[in-house]
Design brief:
With about 290 residues, this protein is mostly beta strands. A hairpin with a 6-residue loop joins strand 11 and strand 12. The protein is globular and about 50 Å long.
């Protein structure tokens, strides 16, 4: 578990769930600067931490903690904190999705965040090798209809990395880094997700199932009501199926978060105020194949 302390430092604890509260607190970033909004992914025996830091310029930072095969804390070693990207990044709000990262089958890390000051916010993607600390990034992705909002990153095994985002909470776009082409590179343009061209669409979040299909979830708002929708990208044809509505209350459904279970089912978690003025967490399972 990685978290902020006093809104200025980043620490982590590692233990079984029942022992987490009493586990040793280990600093990740505890300097005189403001360090906030941590995130973490694991690639083999390396754990990669990310956080936002205010100085010398507003940046996303990265630090790798390397373990032995025994995975003991006593034998773990730190790499130095470094800039994930020289691109300036505005102070993240509480809004989920302003930063996202994941790991592909080859152990490479793919991250994306909202960037830009004094103008339309854009998406910056970064490819990070936790072994060599090498980083590569394309120019920021230009927006089509407005400023970038919530981002999501997912990988298609070791074939492609998908960066998905909402623009002005209206339309959902994606761009992929293709490892299955020669030479491997980012696609030259962004692609609109079919079914998101009209209305209010936001909070994209995706997952890849065992067949290679990508299931993309997002929030569609109509007045005071919002629902969770899903569309499937066919791994053979590359085409998208028709969007399907997954929730049916007349209240606000938001923040979809899909997880692929070992048995191949997709567990979808989301927030809803259908039971009253406060929001509760809900879930449902999606059986993708029989």
């Amino acid at each position: 578990m990685v978290y902020e302390t006093e809104r200025t430092d980043i620490h982590f604890r590692r233990a079984s769930f029942e022992n987490l509260a009493s586990a040793v607190e280990t600093p990740v970033a505890a300097t005189g600067e403001i360090e906030r909004h941590p995130s973490v992914v694991r690639a083999g025996t390396r754990v990669i931490f990310f956080w936002w830091q205010n100085a010398p310029n507003p940046r996303w930072m990265v630090r790798v903690r390397e373990y032995t095969p025994a995975f003991t804390e006593a034998d773990a070693t730190w790499g130095p904190p470094t800039e994930l990207s020289p691109t300036e990044a505005p102070l993240p709000s509480r809004r989920r999705g302003i930063f996202s990262a994941t790991v592909d089958d080859a152990g490479e890390v793919w991250a994306a965040f909202v960037s830009g000051f004094g103008g339309p916010a854009e998406i910056q993607a970064v490819r990070f090798n936790p072994v060599t600390s090498a980083k590569s990034q394309p120019p920021t992705f230009p927006m089509t209809v407005g400023s970038a909002r919530s981002t999501s990153v997912l990988v298609d095994g070791n074939g492609a990395a998908w960066i998905v985002w909402a623009e002005d909470d209206q339309q959902i776009f994606y761009r992929r880094f293709r490892k299955d082409v020669d030479p491997p590179d980012w696609e030259t343009s962004s692609t609109l997700v079919p079914g998101t061209a009209g209305g209010s669409n936001s909070w994209p979040a995706g997952v890849r199932d065992a067949t290679g299909a990508v299931w993309l979830f997002w929030v569609h708002r109509d007045g005071q009501r919002s629902d969770i929708l899903v569309a499937r990208n066919n791994p053979v044809t590359g085409g998208w199926g028709e969007p399907r509505q997954l929730t049916g209350s007349t209240r606000a459904e938001s923040l979809p978060f899909p997880v692929l279970a070992p048995d191949g089912k997709i567990w979808l978690f989301w927030s809803s105020n259908r039971a009253g003025s406060l929001s509760d967490l809900f879930f449902k399972q999606l059986v993708t194949s029989l």
